[in-house]
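the two lines:
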Amino acid sequence: MDTRNPLFALMVERSNTAPKRLVAPGPTHEQLQLIFSAAAQAPDHGRIRPWRFVLVPSHKREDLGQAFVQALQMRDIQAGPAQLQAAYEKAFRAPCLMLAVLDKAPTQAEIETSERLISLGCAVQNMLLMAQTLRLGSGITSGKAMNAPSLRSLFQLTEHEQGVCFLNFGTVSTTKPARSRPVVEEFVSSL
Amino acid sequence: MDTRNPLFALMVERSNTAPKRLVAPGPTHEQLQLIFSAAAQAPDHGRIRPWRFVLVPSHKREDLGQAFVQALQMRDIQAGPAQLQAAYEKAFRAPCLMLAVLDKAPTQAEIETSERLISLGCAVQNMLLMAQTLRLGSGITSGKAMNAPSLRSLFQLTEHEQGVCFLNFGTVSTTKPARSRPVVEEFVSSL
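prediction for all of em together
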């Protein structure tokens, strides 16, 4: 493994940071532009750009918190105050929060959903790596609320759109031990 | 846009190369290990590693060509000799060819298919960027043959696995003009 390769070193040092460990300062406007510009370089078969991102600024976190609460109430009528509070608080972590949205609308070039998700995954990885090179931490979150009516409504998703995950960016408050990664032999074979 | 950022420059200079324009030499053994090691650094919620890669070495290209032919015959009984020949020849391009396989088997941590595809997309982007930094070209290919019985059988995919795309690596024979990329404002909004 060539640790003299700076790109590889960057990939290795990036790891997921839970939103509660992502604190201010978040990315500056310029850094955020660079993170999105990185996303724009993802492979995109048929040039359909089957994804978009919706930022959740500070003054909309309250709305997101309420949407999380409604989503929980809808799927668990028995959810108690502590659970509802926890769902609500999820909206207030990480200084920079956005929803990654997949577009599944039919296009002239027939690009399957799986390929569209690969394109989005490529865009996401570009964003995570860009954040890392800017010395910002990042975390991906998702969960059962992702496509609840309350969230779909808040983010004004069209019928063909799907909320895939939230991306969180900020300054890492406390680091965790490096996580182990799969060994190449585990996932590569040859015909 | 900060062009002094070397990571961004790398992302911009990478673009898809059609397999017919990827020629020998392909990646060395060491380079290929580094490309796969890059894949291993992808986000992987629940640590389930929901993907694997299967290389198609030179002596198996013939088998792949036959599988492409069978796949075409199965979906188009009227396919003529020229079409069948074209399908066959697709197996012989790019010095380094592999299938990216998604694993959808249920796991203890419930990770949805969309999240698994995001993880695979992240792994793929790491591989493409690593190839680029090694001065190798890369291309993603897919198509209707992807999950034809003949291909599933050749790659010994389990019932829970799905062939998502082929990855091609090699030396770029002829470059094409830089492709245009989406503008950030097109795909970013705020609540």
